Amino acid sequence: MSTPVSEPLNKQLSAAVSKPRRRPIRFPWLLVYAIGYLIFLYLPVLLLPLFSFNDGTIVAFPMKGFTLKWYAQLGEQDTLLQAMVNSLIVGAVTALVATSLGLFAARAYVRYRFKGRELSEGLVMLPLVIPGIIVASSMLVLFISLGLKPSLTTVILGHVFVALPFAVSIMKSAFDDFDQSLEEAAFDLGESVIGTFRRVTLPIVAPGIVASLLVTFTVSFDEFVLAFFLSGNQPTLPVYIWSQIRFPAKLPNTLALGSLLLLASVLLLLTAEYFRRRSAKSA
Amino acid sequence: MAGFLRTEAGKGLALSAPASLYVGLLVAAPLGILVAYSFWTQTYVEIDKTLTWANYLEAATDPLVRHLLLRSILIAGAVTAATVALAYPIAYFIAFRTHKKTLWLLLITIPFWSSYLLRVFSWKLILGFNGVMNSALISLGIITEPLTFLLYNEFAVVLTLAHAWAPFAILPIYVSLQKIDRSLLEAATDLGLTKLERFIRVTLPLTVPGIIAASLIIFIPTVGDYVTPSLVGGSQGKMVANLIQVQFGPANNWPLGATLSLVAMASVGFVAILFVILATALGRRIR
Predict the structure, then answer these.
(1) What pTM does this model have?
(2) Which of A24, A99, B7, B67 could form a disulfide with A212 if both were Cys (CB 3.0 to 4.6 A apart)?
C-alpha cells in the first residue's frame, strides 16, 4: 500500500491547492434508497386499512368498491367485545404495575450509587432479549406448578415482565433530566420526604410517567405469544385475532379490527412520544 | 436496618429491589422448573418424576429436532444479515446525508408502533397466491401466472422478519455512526484514502459495536419466533418455536417441551457468544 507521504511534495501541494474543486451534481442514490425503504416499511401497515374499506371478501387487486360494513359488523360480535374488555383490563393493570416498579427502580439507578446497581440495571433489561416462546412456555410451567390456572392474572404477570424494560428506560431518561437541587430546596424549606416527592418530584417527572403508562399499555395491548400461552379461556384481542385469521370468511372483519388496532397503537405511542419529549424539554 | 435504609446504598437497593426481584424471580423460578421438567417424563396425563436423561437423548437423536433447530439458527442468521445490510445505508443516510434526522427517525419507527401479529398477518396477505402482490403484478400485466415462491417458505419468513426488526438494526447503527468523530474522516481523506477505502477502513470498523448490538437484538429473539413461521412459513419454514408450542399444546408432552426450550436457549447463547468473538476480531482485523 503506497502512502501519500512518499509522493513528491509538489504533487501533494498542488492537490491541496486544487482542493475546492466543484463536484459534479451526483445522483442521490442514498435518498432514493431511503425512500424505497420507507415504502417497504409502510407497505404492510397501510395495506390493512386500505383493504378494510374494500367491498369484497378477498384481499387482491382490483379493489371492488368502498364500504364501511366490515366496521359496522364488529360491534355485533360479543366474543370480540369480551376480548377487547380483557385486553383493556390487562393493559391498564400492566401499565400501572410496570410503571410503578419502573419509577422506583429508575429513581434508584439515577439518584443513588450502590452495590449491585449495574447487576440490577442489567437484570431488568433481560426480558428484552429472551425469546418470547421461552418466556411463555417457562411461565406457563411455573404458574401451573404453583396452582395458578391460566387467566387474565397470569397474562398480567407475564406482561409486566415484558413491559418493565420499557418503563425503566423511559423513567430513567425522565430522572436523568431532573435537577436534584429542586428536591433539596423543598426539603430545606421544611417539606417531608413524601411531601417533597408528591409536590416537587412527581409533577416534574409526570410527563415521563404518562409516556411510560402509554408505552407499557401498548406493549401489553399488542403482545401475542405470552397471552396465547397464558390466557386460558380468557382471550385478549391479539389471541382473538389469531383465532379469526384461520377463517377466510372472517377476513374482512379481521382487517377492520386490525386497522382499528393499528390506529389505536400509533395514536397512543405518538401521544407517549409527545409527553416523553416534553419531559426532556422541561428539564 | 432502619439505619441502613437511610444510607445511599440502602435507599438505592430498597427502591430498585421490587423491579429486580420481580424480573429475577420470573427468570429464575420458571427456568428452575423448566430444568426440573426436562428430567421428568410424561406418562399420559401424569408426570413421572423419576430423574432421567431420556428427553435430552430424544432431543439429541431426533432428526426433526436437529433439523428445526439448525433451520431456526440459519433463518435467524439470514434475517440478521439481511436486516443489518438493508438497514446500514439508511442509518448512514440519516447520520451523514440529511439535516432532518429527527423526522427520519420518527418516520422509521412509526410503522413499528403497531401490533407485530398484524404486520405479519399483512405480509401473509401481500405474498399469498391470490394475494396483493400477485394480483397487482397481474393487473399491471407484468406477469400472467401468480408467483408461487412468495409465500410458505424460508424466503417469506426472512422477508417478514427483516421487516419486523428493521428499526432495531437502524437505531444502534445510526447511534454508532453518529458517534464517529468527523475529524477522523477528514484526516482519512487528507491522507489520500478514496471514499470507498475510507468507508471500509475507518467508518465501518468504528460502527462494529453498533452492528454487533443490532445483530444480537435481532438474532436472539428471532431464533425463538413463533408467529412468523406459523403464518408465512408453511411446512418449509417451520422453526423450533413451532415444535415447542406443539409439545405444550396438542402433543401435551411438557417435559420434552421444557427440554427443547432449554436446548434452544443454550444453542442461541452459544451462537451469540461465538458471533460476538468473531465480529470483534474481524472489526480489529480490517482496521
Answers:
(1) 0.85
(2) A99
pLDDT, mean over chain B: 88
- pLDDT of residue A2 exceeding 60, the answer is no
3-state secondary structure of B281: helix
How far apart are the C-alpha atoms of A258 and A265, rounded to whole Å? 10
Predicted pLDDT of residue B241: 92
The three state secondary structure string of A101-145 is: HHHHHHHHHHHCCCCCHHHHHHHHHHHHCCCHHHHHHHHHHHHHH
Q: Which positions in chain B touch A110 (Cβ < 8 Å)?
A: none
Q: Which residue of B has its CA nearest to A104?
A: B15
Interface test with B, best of A51, A100, A134 (most B CBs within 10 A): A134
Residue A181: is its pLDDT beyond 70?
A: yes
**C-alpha cell of B2?**
432502619
Instruction: Please indicate whether, in this complex, the C-beta atoms of A45 and B111 are within 8 angstroms of each other.
Output: yes
What residues of A are in contact with residue B4 (Cβ under 8 Å)? none
B interface mutation test: which of A125, A137, A157 has the most B CBs within 10 A?
Answer: A137
Mean pLDDT highest for which of A1-15, A16-30, B252-266? B252-266
Residue written as grid cell 401521544: A271
For the stretch A12-67, pLDDT in tens is 555 555 555 555 567 788 899 999 999 999 999 998 888 888 887 777 777 788 88
Interface contact B122-A101, CB threshold 8 A? no
What is the predicted ipTM? 0.86
Closest to A261 (Cβ–Cβ): which among B115, B163, B224? Answer: B115
Q: 3-class secondary structure for chain A? A: CCCHHHCCHHHHHHHHHCCCCCCCCCCCHHHHHHHHHHHHHHHHHHHHHHHHCECCCCCCCCCCCECCHHHHHHCCCHHHHHHHHHHHHHHHHHHHHHHHHHHHHHHHHHHCCCCCHHHHHHHHHHHHCCCHHHHHHHHHHHHHHCCCCCCHHHHHHHHHHHHHHHHHHHHHHHHHCCCHHHHHHHHHCCCCHHHHHHHHHHHHHHHHHHHHHHHHHHHHHHCCHHHHHHCCCCCCHHHHHHHHHCCHHHHHHHHHHHHHHHHHHHHHHHHHHHHHHHHHHHC
Model pLDDT, residue B170:
93
Coil, helix or strand for B115?
Answer: coil
Q: Cβ–Cβ of B23/A124 closer than 8 Å?
A: yes
Task: Give the pLDDT score at A167.
Answer: 95
Interface contact flag, B27 A126, Cβ < 8 Å = yes
Best mutation target among A41, A196, A215 (most B Cβ atoms within 10 Å) is A41
From the list A54, A39, A62, the residue with the least C-alpha distance to B141 is A62
